[in-house]
UniProtKB/TrEMBL annotation, chain A:
Signal peptide positions (record): none
Membrane topology: Lipid-anchor; GPI-anchor
A GO molecular-function annotation: interleukin-11 binding
Domain Ig-like per the UniProt entry, residue ranges: 10-60
UniProt protein name: Ciliary neurotrophic factor receptor subunit alpha
GO biological process, one term: positive regulation of cell population proliferation
Source domain of life: Eukaryota
TM stretches of this protein: 310-333
A matching Pfam family: fn3
Gene, per the UniProt record: Cntfr
Major subcellular site: membrane
Highest classification ranks of the organism: Eukaryota, Metazoa, Chordata, Craniata, Vertebrata
From TrEMBL, chain B:
Function according to Swiss-Prot or TrEMBL: CNTF is a survival factor for various neuronal cell types. Seems to prevent the degeneration of motor axons after axotomy.
Main location: cytoplasm
Gene giving rise to this polypeptide: Cntf
GO CC field: axon; cytoplasm; extracellular space
Protein name in UniProt: Ciliary neurotrophic factor
Recorded GO MF terms: ciliary neurotrophic factor receptor binding; cytokine activity; growth factor activity
InterPro entries (UniProt xref): 4_helix_cytokine-like_core, Ciliary_neurotrophic_fac_CNTF
Subcellular location: Cytoplasm
Record flagged with keyword Nuclease: no
GO biological process, one term: positive regulation of axon regeneration
Keywords, comma-separated and alphabetical: Cytoplasm, Developmental protein, Differentiation, Growth factor, Neurogenesis
Pfam assignment, any one: CNTF
Sequence similarity: Belongs to the CNTF family.
Organism: Eulacestoma nigropectus (wattled ploughbill)
Length: 335, 195
């Protein structure tokens, strides 16, 4: 007969060779390899202070006949620690889901059992196929002041543990981040960026349960974010961007009335529109710097631009100027 | 079957719903602030569970999305009329126990009571718009409840304010349902005849 035997890390394990007498001559193997006699006490196999590497198939054979007398699969592991449980509603008002994991592995199989109670009512949390450490539940009532109590119990052959979460319906509402965030420069506006996004597709009814949004943006070269909170709409125009600087932009969402902010959306990059530099000498190599909806890099012109015939700005005065990083630096200084 | 809305009716409904949503939002914010003050000044545990108390309308509802517009308005109106009476009673009890420290609480209660009254009136306006009869208020209201101990009064007050906060949330959602463009056609479930 084949057995499975679970033992704690650090335990001392004694294996008997089935019904063989203590003084019978036997040979033990671990994963097919003979075990040294020093580990035997008569026909018993003694493993002291077992560790994870000693998990495996142990077999006991009768002395000279080599008949297999006993076989067991030793699984060394640990009892479960208190599991980590999280519940969240990203599809309010439809329902919520709970997901869990163990803070450290046990190295042996575990079973999880979840119970959800609302007042005196037991509710069924339906397990998801994928991922398997998750279940979801439909709200049967809305606007209740009665809290939900979720208890997760984890059990394995070496012990059990549990954790409990208690919360209000509205406290766990956290939408998914906004989707399809797009940032574009605005033609002829060197300080503007137009940002648009969509409600997360998991939010079932944005008309009845509108979301509000939080936008953050900064030039790549700076660490400090600018923030804007928007109570409606799924677009916003940034009007104070530094000219010519590449920006990183993110958006988060929250139900208008309850719950917490979503995680930040995927970041998008954009650079405000810049005027095409005027030409030029024949040796000039000037990269096109027209508007683009993705990050664009403006290669600074390397040639002094001076055309007495040209009129720059107001006033009929020809001005010689050197474009590129110097201008950009001045822009930053004086804005 | 309700006749199709005239444009002016639809416009008026949308306007009343928008204002109602703003009223409900303000009311909820003030009730949440009041709850914090109430818990602190009454020496209560904010996480204490309070059993449902008779006479306090519960905001909890099943199949909320299936309610008709008329149901929403009538249930809201009944609730806020009840809260009007409950808050008036809380204010009375507060005045009986009034110390200097509680004067602020009394004022906050009175301010919320005013908003509750205003919201009830707002709901009546919406019902009038739908040519629905406004249900009469029951005489002088229900018989006065048995005299509670001071601690029971405080717990009851906690329950009242919690339910009111949830009602304010629900009302905003209800009004958004009512304000949906489909309601303007008069054939929407928002304002269908109740069975």
């Amino acid at each position: 007969d084949s057995h499975i035997q679970y033992e704690r890390v650090g335990a001392d394990v004694t294996m008997k060779c089935g019904s063989m007498d203590w003084d019978a001559a036997v040979t033990w193997t671990a994963n097919g390899t003979d075990i040294d006699e020093s580990h035997l006490n008569g026909s018993y196999l003694i493993l002291k202070n077992v560790d994870l590497s000693q998990s495996g198939q142990y077999s006991c054979y009768e002395g000279s006949s080599w008949h297999l007398k006993y076989q067991t699969s030793l699984r060394v592991g640990t009892p479960p620690k208190e599991p980590v449980l999280m519940c969240r509603s990203n599809n309010y008002p439809k329902g919520f889901y709970c997901s869990w994991h163990l803070p450290t592995p046990t190295y042996i199989p575990n079973t999880f059992n979840i119970s959800v109670i609302h007042g005196t009512k037991d509710m069924v949390c339906e397990k998801d196929a994928v991922p398997k450490n998750r279940c979801h539940i439909r709200y049967l009532q809305l606007f209740s002041t009665v809290k939900y109590k979720v208890t997760l119990t984890v059990t394995n052959a070496l012990g059990k543990n549990f954790t409990t979460l208690t919360f209000d319906e509205f406290a766990i509402v956290k939408p998914d981040p906004p989707e399809s965030v797009v940032a574009k420069p605005v033609p002829n506006n060197p300080r503007r960026l137009e940002v648009s996004w969509q409600n997360p597709s998991s939010w079932p009814d944005p008309e009845s349960f509108p979301l509000k949004f939080f936008l953050r943006y900064r030039p790549l070269i700076l660490d400090q974010w600018q923030h804007v909170e928007l109570s409606d709409g799924t677009s916003h125009t940034i009007t104070d961007a530094y000219a010519g600087k590449e920006y990183i932009i993110q958006v988060a969402a929250k139900d208008n009335d309850i719950g917490t902010w979503s995680d930040w959306s995927v970041a998008v990059h954009a650079t405000p529109w810049t005027e095409e530099p005027k030409h030029l000498t024949t040796e000039a190599q000037i990269t096109e710097t027209t508007s683009a909806s993705t990050s664009s890099f403006m290669a600074p012109p390397t040639t002094k631009i001076c055309d007495k015939g040209a009129v720059v700005g107001s006033g009929a005065v020809a001005v010689c100027w050197t474009a590129g990083l110097v201008v950009a630096a001045y822009s930053v200084l004086f804005i | 079957m309700a006749a199709a809305d005239s444009p002016s009716t639809a416009l008026r409904r949308r306007d009343l719903c928008s204002r109602g949503i703003r009223l409900a939002g303000k009311m909820r914010a003030d009730v949440v602030d009041l709850l914090d003050t109430y818990v602190e000044q009454q020496g209560l545990d904010a996480s204490a569970s309070v059993a449902a108390v008779e006479g306090v309308p519960l905001a909890a509802v099943e199949r909320w999305d299936e309610q008709t517009g008329t149901q929403r308005l009538l249930e809201n109106l009944a609730a806020y009329r009840a809260f009007r009476a409950l808050l008036a009673q809380m204010l009375e009890e507060q005045r009986e126990q009034l110390g200097e420290a509680d004067a602020g609480l009394g004022r906050a209660l009175a301010a919320v009571l005013l908003q509750v009254s205003a919201f009830a009136y707002h709901l009546e306006e919406l019902l009038r718009l739908e040519s629905r009869g406004i249900p009469g208020e029951e005489g002088d209201g229900p018989p006065p409840p048995p005299r509670l101990s001071l601690f029971e009064q405080k717990l009851r007050g906690l329950g009242v304010l919690r339910e009111l906060a949830q009602w304010a949330l629900r009302s905003a959602r209800d009004l958004r349902q009512l304000a949906k463009p489909s309601a303007a056609t008069g054939t929407a479930p928002g304002l269908a005849e109740s069975p």
